[in-house]
Amino acid sequence: MIHIPALRFGRSYTSLEKATLVHHVTGEPVAEVSQVTGSMIARDLSNMERAHKELAAIPIRDILAMYKKAADYFVNGTLPCGDAELTFDDYVRNLSATTGSPQVFCKRNALKVHYVLENIEEVIGGLTRGLDLEVLDKGYSIKGGRTQAFYPTTDVFGAVLPSNSPGVHSLWVPTIAFKVPLLLKPGREEPWTPYRILQAFIKAGVPASVLGFLPADHAGAGDILRLCGRSMAFGDDRTMAPYKNDHRVEIHGTGYSKIIFGEDQADHWEKYLDMMIEAIAANGGRACVNASAVWTPRNGDAIAAGLAKRLAGVKAKPWDDPTCEVSAFAKPEVAEAIDNMITQGLETPGAEDVTLKLRGTPRLVKDGRCAWLLPTIVRCATPDHPLANKEFLFPYASVIECPQADVLKRIGYTLAATAVTDDPRFIADVMACPHIERLNIGPVPTNRLTWDQPHEGNLFTHLYKQRALQHARQPAAV
């Protein structure tokens, strides 16, 4: 069994208290992860000013070269994992074992992390909207006679991470390029990806003194969000509620992402069936950018039936099957709770599980220690039904009819929206809609992201603020 220590900014730490991770199929122990306390977190954070200065002194071009090396080490190297050495395939296998996510999903999402590491200059260009990289070395740049200056908002960036998909780690990966030390609290079942990324950074030359890997309990997570000047956290609406108005915390929560048909395309919905299936079911439907609702001015019954017919054939398959389309739940009780929530919601008149009718078998599948939820399409008679605006950790979507004139007033918060329309007036209305964060015009699935177009906040503007700067001996403009 592997032991994974905490990394306390240059010092490996083995604790008496450890969390044991087990294989979701066999129940056999896979790893022990050392745990840290709130007092340790506070002690480590007291040294961050020094760590920040050390990182700030490294030229940005040198840091970018380290990212390129780290990208290669992440996918091609054999890297330390506590008292073991893991190849990329070993890492994927362990990640799948403790999270329940199929190996094919784990590898696909880990390659997203590799992309960000490999293309970090492109990612930074998107996050900074094309600022000269010298800003990260000097704090300002001059172009066309205009000075742009920025200063860091914190000495350390804390990330309280989830266990659902390794792709989310791409969001914090640019932190070191922005010259801010990094503190990670991994998800309980998913220490593998953050630990491997940090080991790749260290091997590439990033000082270990600016990297923290601090596994902790719920109270420890709260300490990180309370003590770090800037942080990000992942969770549902209830978990994230205490931080909703805390500007220091960038929240990555429930997405309520949607596909919205315009009047001009609602009759042509069959052309967009593949796009809708990808948006709903890609990556096992577990991402906040997976569509959880389809809004249309008409043909709701036909759209629901078309989606259900395609998704009703999805089966629960073993974790190592390369054709897996849904993830197992490492904790079967979570799948059971979600299944109960949907079943109770269907008791309210005005909703029908169309997939259940076609599949003829329950959405909850159990086999030994494992549980799966099969794709579910619910046709809701009105936008007010309890299941009309829900999101779950599997391929789930409601289908709702609503007039085009009313839809943008009714959709509520939407992380990612795909507006299927060619109507210039409706496009202008969607562009002006304050409820939508990430917008696709035309048949682009909600889950397809470009890393230079951030969603749910912008890491650069979270870590830096712009300031006015006048320099008595300002150099000539370039």
From TrEMBL:
Gene3D superfamilies, alphabetically? Answer: Aldehyde Dehydrogenase, Chain A, domain 1, Aldehyde Dehydrogenase, Chain A, domain 2
UniProt-listed SUPFAM superfamilies: ALDH-like
The record's keywords, sorted A to Z, are:
NAD, Oxidoreductase
One MF annotation (Gene Ontology) recorded for this entry: oxidoreductase activity, acting on the aldehyde or oxo group of donors, NAD or NADP as acceptor
Keyword Oxidoreductase recorded: yes
By sequence similarity, the record places it as follows: Belongs to the aldehyde dehydrogenase family.
> Per its record, how is this protein called by name?
Aldehyde dehydrogenase
What is the source species?
Fimbriiglobus ruber
